[in-house]
Amino acid sequence: DLPPIDGDFYNLDLKLTEKQREIQLKVRNFMEDEIRPLVNEYWKKDQFPFEVIEKFKDLNIVGVPYEGYGCPNLPFLMEGIIAQEIARVDVSISTFFGVHSGLAMGSIYLCGSEEQKQEWLPQMQKMEKIGAFGLTEPNVGSGVAGGLETTCKFDGENWVLNGQKKWIGNATFADVTIIWARDLDSNQVKGFLVRKENPGFKTEKIKDKMALRIVQNAIITLTDCKIPESDRLQNANSFKDTANVLRMTRAGVAWQAVGCARGAYESALKYTKKREQFGRPIASFQLIQNHLVEMLSNLTAMQTLVFRLSEMQDQDLLTDEHASLAKVYCSMRMRDVVSRAREVLGGNGILLEYDVARFVADAEAIYSYEGTKEINSLIVGRAITGYSAFVS
Ligand code: FAD
Fold first, then answer.
1. Residue of the nearest CA to atom 31 in ligand 1?
2. Closest ligand 1 atom, CA of 142?
3. Which residue of 16, 251, 254, 374 has the fewest C-beta atoms within 10 A of its own C-beta?
4. Does residue 47 sit in helix, strand or coil?
5. Which ipTM did the prediction report?
6. Is-contact 12 304, C-beta < 8 A?
7. How many angstroms does the Cα of residue 368 sit away from the middle of ligand 1?
8. How many Å apart are CA 370 and CA 218, to the nearest integer?
9. What tens digit of pLDDT does each residue of 49-106 get?
10. How far is CA 54 from the centre of its chain?
11. Within 275-386, where are the H helices?
């Protein structure tokens, strides 16, 4: 008998409680049975499988770390484990989930008034309402902290929003999109709950992406979009509050990178045991084993790092630089793992049906979103040297 194909080499699963392990296996089985059969088809079609939302509802894994509002209130570690399990099968689905449960619900959880939380979080937890998060703009990506061009102004009755957002995941169909805009009077960044039906709010799907094709990313145009004060996030008073949301979710993106690498490694290992050349499985060749061991060592280092990262988050020790270091390290290692996986599959490594090609493409999106390698490196660099190398 050949040894099992499992990307948890250091048995980190043994550190989970029985209940946590149960949730992990529930998500794993769900992803294998319900999602894996769908993803290549939808990836090819550049469409989102809406039936997935219905299927996700029964899992009760939305808003895992939040307290109240029907949320499970489990450790952040569990949120990471879930992100890994989802991304291990498909990174698009894990991005859809992360945007909804992390960025959108997280903004409301951290920056909303009690009333706003009561209105949105229970419905979002049950996935009766879906959320999106609009920070990036056509002209402003890495420089969002000081440079948002989307503006808001209170006209005595409503807030009036004008501008554009780019890359906003789920926004083509989300019931609510959190829009971050610069107040023309105070020059501070404020957050708004913008409802799908709000006049002046338009979305256009970004077509022909070469990665995360299942995720529906939008360009949003806001034209004199009027929002009542009751839909302004009451506790978002400056970009610092936006940054708090990003700090909380960036750890989850590092876990996604781990899931992406794990999915590619496990597919590659399986393939090399089956594929024969020169009359022997290619897994028996030393050079192929070298690739597999490099992949596994990267993966194991990533896993142990994010495990500790989440422990720190649960102990309230997490800083921006901790989350940024994990995002940088894991996304670099992920890129190495997926490219080696693609290599050991030979020509089949570029065919969608063998899964690895999808991981290779999707890894490129993880690499850039929630802060590029450069930006997250500068956050760590500033913390360890005391010098800010950002231009502004
Ligand atoms: P730019 O900021 O233009 O950067 C270009 C290059 O310049 C990068 O290599 C960058 O690292 C480098 N650079 C920039 N500044 C510096 C500097 N000071 N020093 C050194 N190098 C620098 N955003 C949302 O708000 N909501 C979403 O749901 C969302 N989903 C996304 C999904 C996908 C698939 C993608 C690709 C992006 C998504 N984003 C989303 C946006 C994402 O966060 C940005 O793409 C990212 O922050 C980088 O911004 P940019 O693409 O404009 O690149």
1. 167
2. 2
3. 374
4. coil
5. 0.99
6. yes
7. 6
8. 16
9. 999 999 898 899 999 999 999 999 999 999 999 999 999 999 999 999 999 999 999 9
10. 20
11. 286-314, 320-344, 356-368, 373-385
